[in-house]
Each structure stands twice: as structure tokens, then as C-alpha cells.
Design a protein that fits this description.
The complex is a heterodimer of chains A (about 260) and B (about 250). Chain A is α/β, with parallel strands linked by helices. Helix content of chain A is about 35%, strand content about 25%. Chain A has helices at about 50-55, 95-100, 100-105, 110-125, 140-150, 170-185, 195-205, 235-250, 260; strands at about 5-20, 20-35, 35-40, 65-70, 70, 80-85, 155-160, 190-195, 205-210, 215-220. Classes of the chains: A alpha/beta (about 260), B mainly alpha (about 250). At the A-B interface, strand 6 and helix 3 of A face helix 8 and helix 9 of B.
């Protein structure tokens, strides 16, 4: 795999197993370019969330390397922001203090912290809720706070672990559109772990399919639907063809050989 | 229910108590069980006497010292236990044993060990308050969400920032529950310990008054204990809890 100049995240021969036997995932290699949206799909237990946790630096891989901008990374850091499955908002802080948390850790002074946080809150469409308590927000609004909290520190990469799985269908679709709008504005690179094939196709430039039980990469599919995308695209034959292909791959469970698909990642 | 309605229902308990008191007192001679008027008179006499304040003061002094020692040490031990699973397992039988023993049961031993005076009383308070606070701090540490820690780490938080901005606020609601429970047990144990082995203090005042058949002074002592506990609860503990732990869904 040739490393290009705009490679943002490079994952090289990554393996994770516990006690030397229980394999969580194996031989995962990926190249993700700046500004790309990549989804990882696969059945429960395929190791996709673990892979995200390893990229974030929360879990040490058994072997293999991760590079951000060609610099190896070993531990968590603000270059890779994370939106957690349970969102991990701090309930003892109000909206703006949650959003400003990362800046406080960086010891930014109060005035700049406030300005940057207000900007992020506006970007996710939560203006007017700065002082609200986390308890009083709806599911979708909490999502927005979690995303705003990651945006303030200008991360290179946004890692998302099934962030929309707890939302109702309507809110989920809204948040998907929101996420694409935010990515367009910020040019962020996003890696999303999801159960939903529909969501993966709708949002992604590339969809990575992981294998059940010891997660190798089964397949990678390029989604070349035009952007900006909208809800109507979900009804087009092209969209459904991508879905069909992914479902088929998940069913058959054959192991992907890099040369066959010719995807750029 | 509106705040005014809640307040009205709450305040109804005061005349109710007085009515029950009067009803019972009317069946006994004043010397055995005095009614409210005699007790209120005795109260005003006591409030004018320096000795009464000395007894209240010495009980408060013991409570202040003992409770501070218990709270600080329980917080430190609890935090360490929260961080280390082996230490937590090691502590578990000790905590269960001491929590099952009434703090008062230790008073005779403490008096033998430490002689009469403040020291054994303070020891009883430490014994009474330490374990409830410890148990709650450990529980609070166990309730800290891994995702909260990971979120802070992903922003680059160091150990100090992690402790200051995640562990401390997240452990506060549980710790405060422990402080409130521990405070109640400590206060009651102190009065009881003073009754059996004290040389001063509210408990001592009650037990000596009882021996001298001064039942109205006994009642004054009991009411003082209750009012002071109420005062601490409303003026000290609840506002502090509101300040540091109001975010928690369980309260």
C-alpha cells in the first residue's frame, strides 16, 4: 500500500486478541484520506467497536501500527475525538461547560473558551440551550452536544461508535443529515461504526465490512453517490444496489483480498 | 404539588406533635412526664445558663473533630479502594464486620483505652461515621463511567485533570449520601456514648438529669438534640449537597 501525501489515518496489519487466543479482530489495514467518511459495519461481536477503541488509543493492539498524518499514535489524544455510544456527556456540567471541556483540559483562557464553545454550539444548531442541563435535553439534542464537544478542539479525525443507535428513526435521519452538513463545513475525517447498512451507505465514501468472529475485513465498498446527499437518494436503484452488495457480502462471509475490489482505501 | 402546599403539609406536623405530647402528658404527673409549657419554661431557663451552652459546645466540639477525621480518612481510603480492586476486596470483610457492630458497643472499650473525656467520644464518632462514608465513596468510585474517563483522556487530560474534572464531581453524589447517613449515625452515637461514659455533653446532661428525676431537663436535652440535627441537615448538609451533587438522578 503506497502512502500518499493526504493520508490522514493509516492502519497497518492491526491485530487484537485477549490472552493470546481469543481473537477480536485480525489483519486490519486501512488507509483513510483527509475529509473522507468511512463506515465500519459488521454483525455484533465482529470487533468493530474494539477496532474503534484501538484507533482512539483506549485499548493497545496486540500487534500492528496506527498513524495519524504519518505519525505513530499509541495513546488517546485530541487529534482523534470520540463520540461514544452512550455519548459520555458529563451530567454535572451544563451544555456549554460540556462543550468547553476539551478546551479547559487544554488550559485555554476563559474568554476564548466561551467564544469557541458558542461557535460550536451554533454549528450544531443548539443556540439558546447553552445553560441547559444535560438531563433536560432530548436524545437528538444530546447527540448535538456530544458532537459540539468534539468540534471545539478541531480534531483531525472524528471517531463515532454507533452514536445514533438509541435514537428514533426520524431523529436518526435528521442527525445523519446534520452530521454530513457539519462534515462539509469542517472538512473533518470521520470513521463511523454502525449496525445500520442503510446509514453506512447514506453517509459514507467507503464502507468497510468486518467478518463475524475474529473480525478480518471482508470487503470494502466505494459509495460514489454524489454529494450533498439527501433523503430521496435512499430510494434510488443505485443506493439499493450498494445495500444489496453489502448485505450479500455479510451473508456470504468470504474474506476480502485487497486486489479484487480496487477501492482506494 | 406546589411548594406552598408542600410547606403547609410539612408545617402541620408541628401542631400534631404538640397535641400528641399534651394528650400523653395529661395522663401523667408533671414530675414524670411534663407537658410542653413546663418544658418550654425549662428550656428558657437553660438557654440563660452558661452550663447548658458548655454541654452543647462540648458535644459539638467532639462531633466536629470526630466527623472531620472520619470524613477525610474515609474519602482517602475510599478513593484508593475505588482505584485498586485488590484493596477493595481486602477491605470488604472488614467493612462488613464493622458496619454490623453498633458504634456504641465500642464505647466501653474506648473509655478503658482512652480514659474519660473527649478522646473516647471522638473515637466513637469516627467509628460511627467512617464506615458509612467509606462504603458510599467506594460505591461512587465504582459508578464512574468508563466512557467519562475515556472522553477526558481523548481530550488529553492528565492524571490530575482526570481526578479533578471527572472522578471528584462524579463521586460527589454518593459521597454526600454517605456523609448524610454517617452524620446521622455519628450524632446519635455521640449522645448515647456520652450517656454511658461521658463527663460532659448533651448526652451526659440527659442521663444525669434522668438520674435526678429532672424529667423536664431530659426533655430539653432530647429536643435540643433533635433541633440541632435538623439545623445541620437543613443549613449545612442539604445546601452543600445541592451545590455539589444536584446533577445526580438519584437523590
Amino acid at each position: 500500500m503506497e502512502k500518499e501525501l493526504n493520508d490522514k489515518l493509516t492502519i497497518n496489519q492491526l491485530n487484537l486478541s485477549y490472552d493470546g487466543k481469543r481473537t477480536i479482530f485480525k489483519d486490519v489495514s486501512l488507509n483513510i484520506k483527509k475529509g473522507e467518511f468511512v463506515s465500519i459495519v459488521g454483525p455484533s461481536g465482529c470487533g468493530k467497536s474494539s477496532l474503534l477503541n484501538v484507533i482512539a488509543g483506549f485499548i493497545q493492539p496486540t500487534s500492528g501500527d496506527i498513524y495519524v498524518n504519518k505519525t505513530p499514535v499509541k495513546k488517546p489524544g485530541p487529534d482523534r475525538a470520540v463520540v461514544f455510544q452512550d455519548l459520555a456527556l458529563f451530567p454535572w456540567l451544563n451544555v456549554i461547560d460540556n462543550v468547553a471541556f476539551g478546551l479547559k483540559i487544554q488550559s485555554m483562557d476563559k474568554k476564548d473558551r466561551f467564544e469557541k464553545s458558542m461557535e460550536a454550539i451554533q454549528l450544531v444548531g443548539l443556540s439558546g440551550y447553552e445553560k441547559a442541563s444535560i438531563h433536560d435535553l432530548s436524545g437528538g439534542m444530546k447527540q448535538r452536544v456530544a458532537i459540539a464537544r468534539t468540534l471545539v478542539t478541531n480534531p483531525e479525525i472524528l471517531l463515532m461508535d454507533e452514536p445514533f443507535s438509541a435514537l428514533d428513526a426520524q431523529t436518526r435521519e435528521n442527525m445523519q443529515d446534520e452530521l454530513m452538513r457539519i462534515q462539509e463545513k469542517t472538512g473533518m475525517t470521520i470513521v463511523l461504526v454502525t449496525h445500520s447498512i442503510d446509514e453506512a451507505v447514506y453517509l459514507s465514501d467507503h464502507v468497510v465490512v468486518m467478518q463475524n468472529g475474529g473480525g478480518a475485513i471482508l470487503d470494502m465498498i466505494n459509495v460514489s453517490l454524489p454529494r450533498p446527499r439527501n433523503l430521496e437518494m435512499r430510494l434510488t436503484p443505485a443506493f439499493n444496489e450498494y445495500k444489496r452488495q453489502l448485505i450479500q457480502n455479510l451473508k456470504e462471509g468470504h474474506v476480502y483480498k485487497g486486489e479484487q475490489s480496487g477501492s482506494g482505501i | 404539588m406546589t411548594d406552598l402546599k408542600k410547606w403547609l403539609w410539612g408545617s402541620l406536623s408541628i401542631p400534631f406533635l404538640f397535641l400528641v405530647w399534651i394528650a400523653i402528658a395529661s395522663r401523667y404527673p408533671d414530675l414524670i412526664f411534663p407537658g410542653p409549657i413546663i418544658v418550654i419554661k425549662e428550656f428558657s431557663v437553660q438557654l440563660a445558663s452558661a452550663e447548658f451552652y458548655d454541654h452543647v459546645g462540648i458535644s459539638l466540639y467532639r462531633l466536629g473533630i470526630g466527623f472531620s477525621i472520619a470524613a477525610v480518612s474515609a474519602f482517602i481510603v475510599g478513593t484508593l479502594a475505588g482505584l485498586s480492586r485488590p484493596f477493595r476486596l481486602f477491605l470488604s470483610p472488614i467493612v462488613s464486620f464493622f458496619q454490623a457492630t453498633p458504634p456504641m458497643a465500642w464505647a466501653p472499650l474506648f473509655i478503658l483505652l482512652l480514659d474519660l473525656g473527649n478522646a473516647p467520644m471522638i473515637a466513637v464518632i469516627v467509628m460511627a461515621a467512617f464506615f458509612p462514608i467509606l462504603v458510599n465513596v467506594i460505591q461512587g468510585m465504582e459508578l464512574i463511567k468508563q466512557s467519562h474517563i475515556r472522553a477526558a483522556l481523548s481530550f488529553g487530560a492528565n492524571r490530575f485533570q482526570l481526578a479533578r474534572y471527572v472522578y471528584l464531581p462524579e463521586v460527589m453524589p454518593s459521597a454526600f449520601s454517605g456523609v448524610i447517613v454517617g452524620f446521622g449515625i455519628a450524632w446519635r452515637s455521640l449522645v448515647a456514648a456520652e450517656m454511658i461514659g461521658g463527663d460532659a455533653g448533651i448526652g451526659w446532661l440527659i442521663s444525669t438529669s434522668g438520674q435526678m428525676a429532672n424529667s423536664s431537663l431530659v426533655m430539653v436535652g432530647i429536643i435540643t438534640i433533635g433541633l440541632m440535627a435538623l439545623f445541620f441537615e437543613l443549613v449545612l448538609l442539604q445546601p452543600l449537597k445541592k451545590r455539589f451533587a444536584s446533577w445526580a438522578p438519584r437523590s
